Structures are given as structure tokens and as C-alpha cells.
Amino acid sequence: MEKTTPQFKMKYVAEKTGLSEYTLRYYEKEGLIVPARSANNLRLYSQEDVEWLFFIEHMRSTDMSIKDLKHFVKLRRNGTEYETELLDILLQHRQNVRDKLTKYQANLELLDHKIDIYTDQLKNRDQNLYDYFVTLNADKFQ
Fold first, then answer.
1. Residues 57, 87 within the same domain
2. Which InterPro entries does the record match to this protein (predicted)?
3. What is the pTM of this model?
4. What is the domain count for the chain?
């Protein structure tokens, strides 16, 4: 795919993506993105660069490491011969996200249970709420 002409300055890209200029420079330093340079040495980003930054941020928000992203970028830059490996990376990451969602769901259920306990205790306040909570959990450790 041919890139569009780089035209967006760093400040605009930072505003458009919600990333700080520091983060954009960091991603460049790590090799995740390679913006063009103007005659005055200003970074210029293409529309594809901006879309790639959105992808990076989506992956980061699901805890994909910089190391894994760098590996993905390296394979991506080497052309179509690595498409299967790129797909494998995304499939593995999706499984990691699903595993975390399962864990978060269990934690959410535990939180909901504790909230119900606190709510009930507040309604029947014959004991200090903290003491009740500690007593309730003490049985698990004996």
C-alpha cells in the first residue's frame, strides 16, 4: 500500500490521536513509527501514520508490550511473507485479552459480592462495618 503524502505536524497528530508529543517521539525512538521529515527537520505524518498510531494505542490499551509491538512492526515491514506470523501474533494477543477479561469478570463478581455485603451491613448496623468485613474474611485464613 502506497502512503499518502506526509502532511500532518506533530502537534496536530498529538491532538488528533490524544497522544502526547513525548509519546510520539518515544514511539519513533522505539521504531514503532517513522515519520517523514520536512526541509526544516519537522516530523510530518501521513494519514496512514495516524491510523497506525491509533492501532498502536488500541494494542497498548489491551496491554500489548512495546517489545511485542516492535516485533510486529519488524515483521510488518518485511512484507507479505510474514502475514501468517502477524496473524498468529494478533490471535495470541486476542486470547490474552480474553483471558484477562475472564479474570476481570471474576474480580468484578467478587467486588459486587463485597458491595452487597457492605450494603446489607449498612442496613443492619449492629457492628462496625470494618470489623464485620474482617471477621467475615478471617474464616478463610484459619
1. no
2. DNA-bd_dom_put_sf, MerR-type_HTH_dom, MerR_fam
3. 0.75
4. 2
